[in-house]
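for the recovery benchmark. tokens below, seq after
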């Protein structure tokens, strides 16, 4: 709940302020800036929310990242719904409930393969890079951040259903792979340790002394 609310309230606000300063006009460059800013804000939210955790598992990071992404998408969709409510027709300003419903429906369908998916991948890589119970910057985190930012920019640039489908499939590949790999090394090590015979001291295995 904290991740959802923090990402929705503070994340969207911070992204809006940064975009108003750094993004000028539409186009590919503008979409790329939006992608970099919003994925950066969500990444910072993931790190801040996870800072006090005692352990970092890859799949936990993916769940936290998805929660942050959905919180961000929820409040962002509310803003789009408010904007779509007002329709300008010539000199007349009217209210359109149909436009609101269609906007919310479209963004609701796209959220799992948009903000939720990208933040889940980024959160998983952030947790995967942790060592000795501490988060740390790694090349993998940087590459993942750039990758999800590019996917975000491409998603905003392509306004067709086919483009959404292609970008969603591209994003699902690293998501499924990361979840499948997950923390297999940790689980395998635990299973190996559990399957090893228990060591006993030489004194406990030696025969009892002869009472005679």
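predicted aa per position
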């Amino acid at each position: 709940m904290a991740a959802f609310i923090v990402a929705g309230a503070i994340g969207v606000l911070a992204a809006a302020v940064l975009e108003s300063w750094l993004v000028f006009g539409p186009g590919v460059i503008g979409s790329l800036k939006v992608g970099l800013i919003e994925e950066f804000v969500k990444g910072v939210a993931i790190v801040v929310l996870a800072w006090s955790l005692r352990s970092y598992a890859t799949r936990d990071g993916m769940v936290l990242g998805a929660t942050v992404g959905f919180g961000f998408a929820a409040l962002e969709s509310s803003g789009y719904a408010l904007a779509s409510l007002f329709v300008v027709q010539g000199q007349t300003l009217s209210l359109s409930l149909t436009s609101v419903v269609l906007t919310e429906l479209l963004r609701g369908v796209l959220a799992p393969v948009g903000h939720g998916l990208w933040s889940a991948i980024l959160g998983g890589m952030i947790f995967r890079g942790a060592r000795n119970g501490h988060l740390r910057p790694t090349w993998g985190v940087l590459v993942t951040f750039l990758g999800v930012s590019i996917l975000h920019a491409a998603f905003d640039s392509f306004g067709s259903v086919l483009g959404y489908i292609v970008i969603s499939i591209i994003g699902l590949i690293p998501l499924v792979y990361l979840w499948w790999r997950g923390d297999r090394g940790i689980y395998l090590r635990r299973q190996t340790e559990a399957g090893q015979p228990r060591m006993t001291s030489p004194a406990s295995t030696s025969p009892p002394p002869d009472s005679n």
